[in-house]
Amino acid sequence: MKKLFILMLALCLVNIVKAQWLPINSGTSQNLYDVFFTNLNTAYAVGGGGTILKTTDSGISWTSQNSGVTAMLKSVYFKDNTGYVCGYSSPILKTSNGGANWNSQIPGINNYFSSIFLTDTSTVYTVGLDYIIKTNNGGISWTNQSGSNTNSLNSIFFPDSIIGYTVGNEGTILKTINGGINWIAQNSGTNRLLTSVYFTDILNGYIVGFDLNYKGIILKTNNGGNTWLIVDSTNYNALLSVRFTTNNIGYIVGDSGTILKTMNEGLSWITQNSGTTNYLSSVFFINATTGYAVGENGVMLKTTNGGEASISENNTDNNLMLFPNPACQKLYIDLKQIKDFQNTTVSIYDIQGQLLLNQNIQQPQTELNISSFANGIYIVKVKNNYKTLNSKFIKE
Question: CA angle at residue 193 from 170 to 297, to 5 degrees?
C-alpha cells in the first residue's frame, strides 16, 4: 500500500515538474540586446529606442528608466551601483545611483559601440566600429587603444584586471595582457563574424558567432587563446551570446530562439527548448540554476533549474520499460522495440529537474548504476533522432 501511494505521488509530481525556460513580461516590444544582474533581485536590460529597463524583484516586474536617448542600446555592465550603457549612434551612458539618473559621456570619437565592460567602477572598456576605448577615471576622459585599422568589434571580456579579449568581424580575436596598452591578434581559424566572448578563468574561454548563411560557430581555448579549437560550425543557427555558470556548465543563445547548454566545458552542446522563435541576444545567469535570456520584440525568458527540457509523463508508448521499480542499486531500461540506437541517450533527473546522469545507449537493454542516488522519485528520459520517451522510477 505504501509503494502504491508513492507511485501515485510520483505521477502527480511528474506533471508538476516543468523544468524549462518560461516567458516573463518585459513590458516592452522593443528589441532587447543585453541583460545584466547585479544581485539575485536587481537587473537591467537595454534595447532599441533608448530602452533601459530595471527590475528589483527578480524579473517579476520591469520599470522603464529615462535614458535620455532614442538610439539602439547594445550593452550594459554594472559594478555595484555604478553602471554603463553603450550603443549605436549614442553617447556612452553612466549611472552612479543604480539607474535613477543616466548621464551622457562623449568619448570624442565614432559613437558606434557594441559592448562595454568594467574591471572596476573607474576602469571601463568599450568596443565597436574600428575602436577600443578606455577610461580609468570613471569617464572623465577616454583614450583610444586600438588605432583606426581594427575590424569592427562586437564583444569584450576581461577575466582579470589586466588580461582581456575582444572579438569581431572576419574572425578577429584580440588579446591584451597589460590593461589594453597593447592588443595582440590571435588566430581564430575562421573568418566568420564573432559575436560574444566569455572566459571562466585566465586560460579557458569561449567565443560564438556565425557566417553569411547564419550558421553558428563555437570556439574554445584552454591556453589563454594561444590556440582556438572550433568545437562546432555547422549545426546551429546564428549564435549571439555565451556565458558560463561554472567551469563545466555554460549556455549559448542565438537566432530562432536557440538555447544551447554544455555540461562538459563546451566539448558538446545540447539544445534546450526556449519556447520562442524570436532571436535571443543575451543570456545571463545569477547562480548555477537561475538564468535569463532577452531578445527580439521584447522577449524575456527565465529558468530556475538550469533550463533542462520539460519532463512530462508519456507512457503511451510501451517501448520504455524500467525494472525493478522501485529500485535500489541497479536500474534496467528495456528498449527492445527500438530498431536504431544511433544518437540515443538516457538522462535521469530528480523531481526538481536537476540532471543527474546522461549517457549513450547502444543496445536494447541498458544497466544504470543508481546506488549513489538518494531515496526518492526520479524521471528517466530516453531520446534519439526519432522520438523522446519519458518514465519514472522510485529509488529506495
Answer: 155
CA distance 201 to 375: 36
Q: What angle do CA 217, 218, 221 make, to 5 degrees?
A: 140
Contact in structure between 346 and 286 (CB atoms under 8 Å): no
More confident residue, 63 or 8: 63
Q: How far apart are CA 54 and CA 94, in angstroms?
A: 15
Q: Positive or negative CA dihedral for 354, 359, 363, 367?
A: negative
Closest to 108 in 3D by CA, of 77, 86, 133: 133
Q: How far apart are CA 102 and CA 354, in angstroms?
A: 40
Question: What pLDDT score was predicted for residue 55?
Answer: 97
SS3 (DSSP) at 169: helix
Q: What is the value of pTM for the model shown?
A: 0.76
Cell (9 digits) for 243: 556565458
Preceding amide of 159 cis, omega within 30: no
Residue 330 forms beta bridges with which residues? 369
DSSP state of 23: E
Structure confidence at residue 8 (pLDDT): 41
The arrangement of strands across the sheet holding 63-65 comes to: 32-37, 43-47, 52-55, 63-65
- Which residue do the cell numbers 566569455 mark? 198
Which residues are registered as beta bridge partners of 392?
Answer: 379
Per-residue pLDDT tens digits for 250-281: 999 999 999 999 988 998 888 888 999 999 99
Q: Which one is predicted more confidently, 367 or 45?
A: 45
DSSP 8-state secondary structure symbol assigned to residue 27? S
DSSP string, 230-245: EEESSSSB-EEEEEES
| For the chain, counts of helices (H) and of strands (E) | 1, 35
Peptide bond into 91 cis (omega under 30): no
Per-chain mean pLDDT for the chain: 87
Residue 83 sits at the vertex; the CA angle it makes with 147 and 95, to the nearest 5 degrees, is 105
φ, ψ of residue 158 in degrees (nearest 5): -120, 115
